[in-house]
């Protein structure tokens, strides 16, 4: 089931109200969630999935992605290049120049 950003914000707002949060805390939570949602949906965000995982920013990363990242760190430079070429959508642009 997919929900829109507005539906998600409404659910969070209702949850804070139900849990007895005061208005100031509620507003801080909502603003934080809005910023996070906007950051993740920006089209000009050039950060690859690999970089988001590395920075601890990828919420709910799958086991495949986590395993691929671990494998990358264990690999020698030749195998790192092979991984980058095999999974360009995961590593993004210019990964080789950044990480090898």
Observed structural traits:
single chain; mainly alpha; 0% strand; elongated
How would you describe what is shown here?
This protein is mainly α and 100 residues long. The protein is built from seven helices and no strands. It is elongated.
Provide a concise account of the structure shown.
The chain is an all-alpha fold. The chain has seven helices and no strands.
β content, as a range?
Answer: under 5%
Derived from helix and strand composition plus strand pairing, the structural class reads mainly alpha
Overall shape: elongated
Mean pLDDT equals 75
Distance between the termini: 40 Å
Cα-atom radius of gyration: 18 Å
Largest sheet: none
Number of strands: 0
The number of helices is 7
Helix content class: over 70%
Helix/strand order: HHHHHHH
Give the quaternary arrangement of the chains.
single chain
Uncertain residue ranges: none
Write the layout of secondary structure elements.
Blueprint: H1 5-18, H2 23-41, H3 49-54, H4 63-74, H5 77-86, H6 88-91, H7 95-99
